[in-house]
Amino acid sequence: MAERKRQVVIRAARRPMLCLRMDLDTLFTPYFNKWLERFGDGELQYVPRLLDQARELEVPLHFFAQGMGVIQYPDLLRRILAAGFAVDSHLHTHRITLIDDYGLIFEEVLTAEHLLKSIGAAPTGIGATGMYPEGIDGREDVQRLLMERGYHWVSSRFNLKRTLHEMQPYRYPNGLLELPCAGWSDFTWFYASDQPTLPEYDVGGSPTLEQFIRHVQDLTTLAARDGLILAVCLHPGLLAAHDPELHCVPRVIQHARRLGVEPADLRTIAAACPPARGG
Predict the structure, then answer these.
(1) Per-residue DSSP letters for 94-140?
(2) Each residue of 5-34: pLDDT tens digit?
């Protein structure tokens, strides 16, 4: 079983940390032909407001950009980089996942890498498109490719049937670090809330922004109590439609800081994890 091939689960840093992962979409994202209908068109206007808020709160948001994003909105990505926020790879087109055909993955990884580096980004990890219940378990070819390209970590696991304790960082057999996203993402919360999940994650009716914020706060409370890592997957394009007044980030961060949970990007969390065995 792929599960048995993982290295022991990491209790990452002896201190709880919270990452707000921000995935940026493009006109090439598969569902983008329905983007205006479903999410509105406010992403490009929303991100600068989000940057201003994050600077004021001193929150290290972590952005993940596609190679197509470099083509479609390079100035926005340069602005994110100039503001000091981490920008890592979200592959190239959002049409290929890290569990697809190896040749397609190879092309996506290298193309996104080339384009991101062309605007001054220095990606050290990949925030997978789609994300998968067991990450990239069983894909030793993909794990090897990422390590050979110089990526030290990947964030590819998302599973609503697993508790926060079960969604802690771990390493694949070759030492590549997996940094899962736990709980609901904003996309699944607002647009796929009928999928099977843990009883404690049950939406319980029509999902609202207030409920989503409380859900993330509850997970943060658990992280604080048990010294865990929590990464939450968010999308500025969705937040622009569902949180136009920017309530989510400050309320989650203020709650985290009251409990002693450190806001961090995934690079910081990865650096806090013990090295691979023999590394």
Answers:
(1) SS--TTS-HHHHHHHHHHHHHHHHHTT----EEEEEEEETTTTTT-H
(2) 555 555 545 689 999 999 998 665 555 545
